[in-house]
Structures are given as C-alpha cells and as structure tokens.
Specification:
two-stranded antiparallel ribbon, 303 residues, two-stranded antiparallel sheet, 6 strands
Length: 303
C-alpha cells in the first residue's frame, strides 16, 4: 500500500489534535487545581465526589442545628441565672423585712423593690430567642405569661420542647414549657409569680404583725422556687456535653469526607506541570517531524 502525502498529513494532524487536547486538559487542571471538572473526566470519581458533597451538605445542616442548640442552651442558662438572682434578692428582702423593728415605711419601700423584681421575672418569663418565645412550649408566637384582670399571672403557652436534631440518634429536647420553670404546682412546684405577689401583699399590709406572718410564709416557697430554677439549669449540663461531643465528632467526620473528596477531585499540580511540559515537548517534536517529512518537493509541485 502506497502511503501518500495526504495520508501522512492527516496522521500528523490527528496526533497534533490529541496532543493539543491533552495539553488543554493539563492547563485546566493547573488553573483550577481540580482533576475532575466534569463527569466525563472520571465518571466513577465524579460519582464519589457528588456522594461526598451530599454527605457534607447533610453534616452542615446538623452542624448548624447544633450551633443553634448550643446558643439556645447558653441563652437559657443566662436567663435562668438572672432569674435565680432575682428570686434570691426577693427572699433576702423577705428575711430582712420580716424581722422585728421594721417600720411600715421601710416595708412599703421594699414592696416597691419586690414589685420591680416581679415585673422583671415576668419580662424574663416572656423572653424571646431568635423571635420565638423561649418558655411558651410549642406555642412560640405569643407571650406565654400574662396578668389577668385580677393581677394573677396565667400561662397561655403550651406543652412541648425545643428539639435539636442529631445525626443517627434521638434529638435533644430542651424543655420549653414555662409552667415547669415558674409554676408547676400540680407536680409539687412553686408558683413564683404568686409567691412574689404574696410577699408584696405582706410588705404592704398595714397590720405589721399580720404582714410579718405573710412575709415569713413566702420564705420557704421562694427558696424552693430558687431550687426549682437551679434544677432546670442543671438539666442543660448533660445536654451541652452531648452537643459538644457530637459537634467534635461532626468536625472529624467532615474532615474525613473532605479529604476523600480531595483525593478524587483535587489535581496534583506539580505532576500536572510535569505532564504539561512533557506534552509540550512531544508536541514540538511532532511539529518538527511533520515539517521534515511533509516538506513539499519539486515533484509535488509538478503533479
């Protein structure tokens, strides 16, 4: 079979085209630092990368929920700590003003202080986190505690908890039922609002002897109310530990998944540069060979 000039030209053209495409691939890898830019680069590797990214997306959602949960626990902790301080202050006032030798004017002044404490407690009981009422249970769009026409504080929230989803396990449930914090008389708890109102009534009672009895009657309930709040704070400790442990596990897992994605997707830039240089040398050699072999002769022009 006679090999013609045109056949050799087509052969060299095909070789140069393949070498050019290979150089473009290496240049793209160097520029993007990615070995896989499209599924056709490595179908199996691309499938693993997509799967890994899907897993990372799910982990990020859990991580975001955990961060929000930790913020919620920290917010609850600060709120309950402040409430405990207010209850302690009210009880200290009750102790001081139930002693002998306290005048009606002193008690009236103390009643003003306790009334402010009661207002602060009600305000904190209706506190919001990210726009939602913390102690309203599943009903988070309305203030859970309100004073009725007779001045009594009633609960209009619901039962329920703030759920923090965790991967591969039951979610953490942060109690959001305000009755468990501030009332819960049915379960042997203390109605904090009622006890503060009783203390105010005792301090304002013009009958000092009767007022003393009323004030002293609030000492034990206020102490139990403080313990009630302290116990709710204590519930958060194991929950915070579990969140922290899960967050650390997710951090390690994300690093593992990202490393696996990198092994499939990331390019070895140094190796790509070496391969590009080799391709360039081969391309130039092919051009040189083609220029020698395909150089037209006088016979070509006479044909």
């Amino acid at each position: 079979m006679r090999i013609t000039h045109n056949m050799m030209a087509r052969m060299f053209t095909g070789v140069l085209r393949r070498q050019t495409l290979a150089m473009i691939v290496q240049q793209e890898r160097i520029a993007t630092q990615k070995r896989i830019s499209r599924p056709s680069d490595d179908p199996a590797g691309a499938a693993r990368v997509l799967s890994g990214r899907g897993l990372l997306s799910g982990l990020e959602k859990y991580a975001s929920g955990i961060q929000q949960g930790k913020s919620r626990l920290e917010f609850n902790e600060e709120t309950l700590k402040l409430l405990g301080d207010l209850v302690r202050q009210a009880r200290r006032t009750a102790e001081e003003k139930s002693a002998g030798g306290v005048s009606a004017a002193e008690r009236a002044l103390a009643a003003t202080t306790v009334r402010e404490i009661a207002d602060q407690v009600l305000q904190l009981a209706n506190t919001r986190f990210h726009g939602e009422y913390v102690f309203g249970g599943d009903r988070r769009d309305v203030a859970p505690f309100v004073r009725d026409g007779e001045g009594r504080v009633t609960y209009r929230g619901a039962g329920g908890a703030f759920l923090i989803p965790l991967p591969g396990g039951a979610p953490i449930a942060v109690d959001a039922d305000g009755r468990n914090y501030f009332q819960n008389e049915a379960a042997g708890g203390v109605d904090l609002f009622a006890e503060l109102d009783h203390l105010i009534a005792g301090l304002e009672n013009p009958d000092l002897e009767e007022g003393t009895a009323w004030i002293r009657a609030t000492l034990d309930p206020l102490e139990r109310a403080e313990v009630q709040l302290r116990n709710k704070r204590a519930e958060a400790a194991p929950q915070a530990y579990r969140l922290q442990a899960t967050e650390e596990h997710l951090t390690r897992l994300r690093a593992t998944v990202q490393a696996a994605i990198g092994r499939d997707e990331d390019a070895d830039v140094a190796q790509a540069i070496v391969e590009l240089k080799s391709l360039q040398v081969a391309y130039e050699s092919t051009l040189a060979a083609a220029s020698q072999i395909l150089r037209p002769s006088l016979v070509d022009f006479l044909r």
